[in-house]
């Protein structure tokens, strides 16, 4: 029983880490590549999760749904919905500088969360959406291990696409905008256009992470998309792993989620009267960890390494 419990915990841990790795890769597309300070990750995370849930759950009189679509259709809907939201937000904020973009994006994320919380006809409000099935439901493949494999495949696929984008001429323009925007504009590149493209693609990846989360957890409520879980942790993961490095984003997701999960186990051992203080100490510990990383390794565990340019033979 002990071995099976440990195995179940590891599967759950790795699955959650995989979902957060997808979110971190999406943020890396925005911040690591282009320097866009998006603090509204939770909004795109929520849109992706709720879209996939609405498309795939059975009919219910409590909220919009009953489409009963397959798992992949739900994920596709999550990506499309987050892409559209990212396009709207990007068109509004593409020309904003880092601090103004941060203020605008966190405001939009809170608008999304409050909309999800109050529009009962669409999302069932604070009561949430339950019964979100995993793929291969009611078959021999319906197991947490199977879903871990699915999440791992999506992480690998997103990593491959983002890594190719990073090494492409398009990715070089994004890094040039991040490092020297005036020089990039002088070279004839559309700063707003490239910023918008990176923002929309990053938002789409975050929506995919939301869809994967919904089908793993099986239940959605607005509390799951508070800034602490949907934004702060993702930022810590990317900074700890290495901003601008896709491998660092994945490694940071695993390491920080390991610290977060480990502190949950430790606080569970505290007496009941200290449970509230223990929860606050978890957040404090993550904040201290972030400060230590910024002081000792400001570039993260895996610093960014721009791809080498291969000289063409004449």
Automatic annotation (TrEMBL):
Q: Which chain regions cross the lipid bilayer?
A: 6-25, 37-55, 67-93, 100-116, 145-162, 198-218, 224-241, 248-267, 279-296
One family name in Pfam for this protein? BPD_transp_2
Location in the cell: Cell inner membrane
Asked if the record carries the keyword ATP-binding, the reply is: no
A single GO cellular-component term on record: plasma membrane
Keyword set for this entry?
Answer: Cell membrane, Membrane, Transmembrane, Transmembrane helix
MF-aspect GO terms: branched-chain amino acid transmembrane transporter activity
**Alphabetical list of InterPro entries matching this protein:** ABC_transp_permease, LivM-like
Q: Per UniProt, what is the membrane topology?
A: Multi-pass membrane protein
Among CDD domains, the record links this protein to:
TM_PBP1_LivM_like
Q: What is its main location?
A: membrane
PANTHER family assigned to the protein according to its UniProt record, in alphabetical order: HIGH-AFFINITY BRANCHED-CHAIN AMINO ACID TRANSPORT PROTEIN BRAE (PTHR30482:SF10), HIGH-AFFINITY BRANCHED-CHAIN AMINO ACID TRANSPORT SYSTEM PERMEASE (PTHR30482)
Protein's UniProt name: Branched-chain amino acid ABC transporter permease
User: What species was this sequence derived from?
Assistant: Chromohalobacter moromii
């Amino acid at each position: 029983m002990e071995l099976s419990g440990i195995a179940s915990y590891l599967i759950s841990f790795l699955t959650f880490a995989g979902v957060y790795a997808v979110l971190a890769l999406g943020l890396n597309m925005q911040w690591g590549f282009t320097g866009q300070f998006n603090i509204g990750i939770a909004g795109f995370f929520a849109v992706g999760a709720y879209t996939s849930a609405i498309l795939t759950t059975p009919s219910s009189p409590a909220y919009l749904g009953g489409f009963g679509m397959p798992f992949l259709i739900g994920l596709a809907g999550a990506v499309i919905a987050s892409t559209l939201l990212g396009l709207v937000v990007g068109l509004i904020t593409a020309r904003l500088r880092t601090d103004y973009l941060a203020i605008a994006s966190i405001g939009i994320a809170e608008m999304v969360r409050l909309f999800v919380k109050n529009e009962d006809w669409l999302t069932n409000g604070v009561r949430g959406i339950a019964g979100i099935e995993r793929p291969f439901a009611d078959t021999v493949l319906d197991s947490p291990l199977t879903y871990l494999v699915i999440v791992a495949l999506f992480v690998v696929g997103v990593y491959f696409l983002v890594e190719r984008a990073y090494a492409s001429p398009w990715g070089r323009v994004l890094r040039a905008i991040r490092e020297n925007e005036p020089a990039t504009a002088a070279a004839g590149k559309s700063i707003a256009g490239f910023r918008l493209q990176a923002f929309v693609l990053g938002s789409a990846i975050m929506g995919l992470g939301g869809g994967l989360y919904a089908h793993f957890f099986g239940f959605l409520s607005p509390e799951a998309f508070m800034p602490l879980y949907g934004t702060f942790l993702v930022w810590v993961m990317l900074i700890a792993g290495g901003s601008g490095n896709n491998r660092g984003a994945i490694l940071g997701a695993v390491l920080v989620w390991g610290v977060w999960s480990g502190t949950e186990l430790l606080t569970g051992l505290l007496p009941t009267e200290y449970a509230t203080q223990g929860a606050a100490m978890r957040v404090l510990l993550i904040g201290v960890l972030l400060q230590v990383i910024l002081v000792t390794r400001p570039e993260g565990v895996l610093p960014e390494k721009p791809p080498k340019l291969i000289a063409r033979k004449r």
